[in-house]
């Protein structure tokens, strides 16, 4: 008798998976996803945001609120915790996949794969955790409705964009369900292949606009970071301060000896490199540490401790920028349970490796005693590895719908790699029931987002919280 290497891994036949998906549909009709309203016990949104802020750097809280107040869409970007709490009170299919946890439109983008070809994929995994696949779909759908309102588009345009996006998700999942397992793993959306993946149902004008949107982003890489972030001091490269957004390490730790600052960073690097494969460690070790700074990033991430490190290779024209970003508990954890990984940096990295088309070659994690004496988790990646994202706020209706379709395909591919794609496809079916439900949900939740945005405006006006605008 052949001894199984992993006897606890259970395998379903395609028929069993399909039956599971249809059984879930019988248990929870697809139309049920369209109904949502705040429950009587729904917590005050500002209380939830303040709860989340307790583990963040307090001096940056006003910047976070200021960025969230720019528009209802930027508020939505920073309100993943609020939506997770709302989804937890709703119906669940029981069909799980690795979730992004914050799958809104601005968390998709372009980056260079290890072969340096530009690929389009999810690019933010701070909240990743296994959970019901529909939670990610609902977050994406709602972000489209919020973005459409921000653009001044009518309900009909918003509904069309949401429906097209969710339909693309379902159709892509059906195609993945019919693929060999390894072909699903290899699938990725090269910028050059967008037409091949999405030409059905999209006009030539929309395709032209989509390709312009996706390929026209201003990508960032280490050479651009060198120009934008650095200057020369006494012949040595240094990250130039722009407080509070960029604060050199010596200003974060005033009065500390230079040797102590270098020791702090070297401990960070040494701990992190042990999580890299041997060949990547060898690559990292070919660079020498030069300087570090604390950086404010994103909207929802503002306040999380984030460091950028400058290293150089063969000479000063060979820079490498690493970002050490604090990894806190996922916003999904209170509602879906703790991660199997005790280290949150590893949770993020493992989730990214499962979901993303071609993860950063220097992706890793660490847990160290930081400069404030606390033990904290971090995940590490290159700061700007030929990354770019589309400007959602500048899209017209056709571009928004086309871009949504790309995101729908991308999310389906990410879920298909970790979830039971056959069961999910069987649950979704070929009709419009799920598409229509998501469209209704997206509009209803966009209403809730506007109410929560107004609550933050009122909290700032009353002095309950402080916001710093334009930073």
Descriptive report:
It is a single chain. This protein has 471 residues and is an alpha+beta fold. The protein has 19 helices and 13 strands. A hairpin with a 5-residue loop joins strand 12 and strand 13. Helix 4 (72-78) packs antiparallel against helix 6, helix 6 (133-150) packs antiparallel against helix 17 (397-418) and helix 6 (133-150) crosses helix 19 (433-461). The longest helix is centred in the C-terminal third of the chain and has 29 residues, at 433-461. It is globular, with a radius of gyration of 22 Å. The termini are far apart.
Based on secondary structure, the structural category is: alpha+beta
Cα separation of the termini = 66 Å
Number of strands: 13
The unreliable regions are none
Notable traits:
14% strand; six-stranded antiparallel β-sheet; 2 domains; 471 residues; three-stranded antiparallel β-sheet; alpha+beta
Summarize the model shown.
The protein is 47% helix and 14% strand. By secondary structure, the protein is an alpha+beta fold. The chain has a six-stranded antiparallel sheet, sandwiched between helices. Strands 2-3-5 form a three-stranded antiparallel sheet.
């Amino acid at each position: 008798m052949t001894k199984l290497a992993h006897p606890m891994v259970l395998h379903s036949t395609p028929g069993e998976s399909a039956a599971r998906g249809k059984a879930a549909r019988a248990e929870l009709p697809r139309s049920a996803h369209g109904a949502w309203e705040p429950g009587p016990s729904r917590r005050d949104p500002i209380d939830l945001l303040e709860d989340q802020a307790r583990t963040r750097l307090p001096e940056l809280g006003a910047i976070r609120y200021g960025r969230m107040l720019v528009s209802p869409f930027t508020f939505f970007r920073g309100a993943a915790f609020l939506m997770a709490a709302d989804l937890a009170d709703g119906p669940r299919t029981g069909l799980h996949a690795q979730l992004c946890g914050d799958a809104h439109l601005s968390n998709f983008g372009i980056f260079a794969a290890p072969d340096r070809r530009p690929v389009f994929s999810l690019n933010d995994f701070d909240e990743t955790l296994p959970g019901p696949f529909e939670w990610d779909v609902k977050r994406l759908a709602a972000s489209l409705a919020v973005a459409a309102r921000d653009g001044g588009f009518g309900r009909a345009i918003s509904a069309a964009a949401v429906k097209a996006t969710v339909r693309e998700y379902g159709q892509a999942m059906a195609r993945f369900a019919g693929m060999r397992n390894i072909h699903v793993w290899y699938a990725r959306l090269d910028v050059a292949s967008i037409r091949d993946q999405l030409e059905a149902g999209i006009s030539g004008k929309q395709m032209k606009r989509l390709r312009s949107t996706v390929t026209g982003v201003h990508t960032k890489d280490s050479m651009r970071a060198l120009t934008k972030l650095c200057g020369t001091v006494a012949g040595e490269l240094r990250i130039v301060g722009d407080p509070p957004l960029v604060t050199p390490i010596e200003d974060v730790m005033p009065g500390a000896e230079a040797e102590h600052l270098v020791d702090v960073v070297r401990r960070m690097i040494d701990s992190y490199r042990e999580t890299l494969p041997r060949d990547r460690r060898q690559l990292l070790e070919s660079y020498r540490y030069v300087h570090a700074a604390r950086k404010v990033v994103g909207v929802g991430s503002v306040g999380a401790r984030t460091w950028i490190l400058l290293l150089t290779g063969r000479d000063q024209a060979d820079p490498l920028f690493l970002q050490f970003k604090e990894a806190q508990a996922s916003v999904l954890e209170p509602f879906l349970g703790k991660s199997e990984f005790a280290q949150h940096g590893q949770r993020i990295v493992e989730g990214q490796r499962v979901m993303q088309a071609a993860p950063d070659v220097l992706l890793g994690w660490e847990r160290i005693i930081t400069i404030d004496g606390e033990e904290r988790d971090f995940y590490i990646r290159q700061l700007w590895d030929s990354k770019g994202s589309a400007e959602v706020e500048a899209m017209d209706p056709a571009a928004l719908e086309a871009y949504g379709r790309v995101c729908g395909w991308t999310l389906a591919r990410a879920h298909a790699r970790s979830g039971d794609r056959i069961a999910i496809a069987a649950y979704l079916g070929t009709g419009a029931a799920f598409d229509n439900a998501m469209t209704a949900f997206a509009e209803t939740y966009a209403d809730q987002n506007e109410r929560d945005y107004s609550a933050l405006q009122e909290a700032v006006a009353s002095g309950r919280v402080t916001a710093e605008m334009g930073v």
